[in-house]
Amino acid sequence: MAKKIETCPTVDEWVNKRLETLLPSIDRDTWAGLWTVLNPDVGPQAEAA
Domain containing 16: what range? Predict the structure, then answer.
């Protein structure tokens, strides 16, 4: 499990890449919020659960 986490991009890295390439008009905090809502199993809420 640890190796998978190390080799996969973090949520921040994923968000930043999407912001830079696909959605430059949406700020990072807004997109991070959308990410958390759309993907609760892998977002900050999953860690708290």
Answer: 9-38
Residue in this structure with the two tokens 């008009």, named with its chain if needed: 25
**Whole-model pTM over 0.70:** no
Instruction: Determine the Cα angle at 4 with ends 38 and 20, to 5°.
Output: 50
The mean per-residue pLDDT over the stretch 23-48 comes to: 68
Q: Look at residue 24 and tell me if it is in a domain.
A: yes
- Comparing C-alpha atoms, which of 38, 3, 1, 2 is closest to residue 14? 38
Q: 8-44 burial, b if ≥16 CB within 10 A, otherwise e?
A: eeeeeebbeeebeeeeeeeeeeebbeebeeeeeeebe
If one counts the domains in the chain, the total is 1
